[in-house]
Amino acid sequence: MMSPNLECVQIDLGDRTLSQVLMEVERLYLETVLTKACGNKTLAAKFAGVSLSTFREKLSRFTVKMAISLE
After folding, report:
1. Neighbouring C-alpha atoms within 13 Å toward the C-beta of 15
2. Exposed/middle/buried for 53, CB within 10 Å: 0-12, 13-18, 19+?
3. pLDDT tens across 20-69, in order?
């Protein structure tokens, strides 16, 4: 199974709880795998190692932005 290369991400912890920080990391991960899969949710779910239904459920919890590079 292919695994996306995740870049180093800095997160400002501020006064956030562990739960809040973990949610932010999960959101960033979902954005990354969705971007690597060019928006294909089925492929992104495979990259993430979860079922498509689980991936969609996780996406529904967050506002996920897909960064597309036009190279």
Report:
1. 0
2. exposed
3. 888 888 989 999 999 999 999 999 999 999 999 999 999 888 876 655 54
What is the reported pLDDT for 70?
Answer: 42
31 Cβ contact list (under 8 Å, min separation 6): 64, 65, 66, 67
CB 67 within 8 A of CB 31: yes
Instruction: Using a cut of 0.85, tell me whether the model's pTM lies above it.
Output: no
Q: Kindly tell me the sign of the dihedral angle through the C-alpha atoms of 31, 33, 36, 40.
A: negative
3-state secondary structure the chain: CCCCCCCCCCCCCCCCCHHHHHHHHHHHHHHHHHHHCCCCHHHHHHHHCCCHHHHHHHHHHCCCCCCCCCC
